[in-house]
Specification:
alpha/beta, Rossmann fold, four-stranded parallel beta sheet, 7 helices
């Protein structure tokens, strides 16, 4: 791991263990999270037509103070999988990859967000992060130990998703 990568990961780990405070913007820069112009080519309109049951037109990343509390509470282990369905630009998975030894899966339907996450994972040298471009409703969660869902679904699709998880 390069010294720049170690420094970036150290910023996140120090925030996580409470030895240093950092704003969300500092942590986003450390994690190289860079939201892009999501509808530069009209892709959002096409996705709305194709997946009209989902509300992915607005992105609001999970605040890092909340992410810190999630990972402190669950303390994932190396044999486990943490999945973020509707991952956005990867705030949760990239933070987690810096502080927890488990594997991570980010599921996101918007191609531009997936491309941004691929760049981030590569720049940070994270081999424990899998990025899946696809509809969260169609994914298999059988190997997932922890599932984070900042629900991108409208009510009918949310009920369908919960039914899928419950096996009904």
């Amino acid at each position: 791991m390069s010294s720049e990568r170690r420094t970036r990961a150290a910023i996140v780990r120090k925030f996580h263990d409470g030895s240093a405070e950092a704003s969300d913007s500092i942590l986003e820069r450390a994690l190289r999270i860079a939201p892009g112009d999501e509808d530069r080519d009209g892709a959002l309109s096409a996705l709305l037509q194709r997946f009209g049951n989902q509300n992915f037109s607005f992105f609001g990343g999970t605040p890092f103070h909340e992410i810190r509390e999630i990972f402190r509470a669950i303390s994932p282990q190396p044999h486990e999988v943490f999945c973020d369905a509707g991952a956005g630009y990867g705030h949760v998975v990239f933070y987690g990859a810096c502080v927890a030894p488990c594997r991570f899966r980010a599921i996101e339907i918007l191609p531009i967000r997936c491309a941004a996450m691929q760049r981030t994972a590569q720049q940070l040298g994270l081999g424990n992060v899998e990025i899946v471009e696809g509809d969260a409703l169609t994914q298999n969660y059988d190997d997932v130990s922890y599932l984070l869902l900042n629900s991108p679904f409208f009510p009918d699709a949310a009920a369908q998703f919960i039914g899928k998880l419950a096996g009904t």
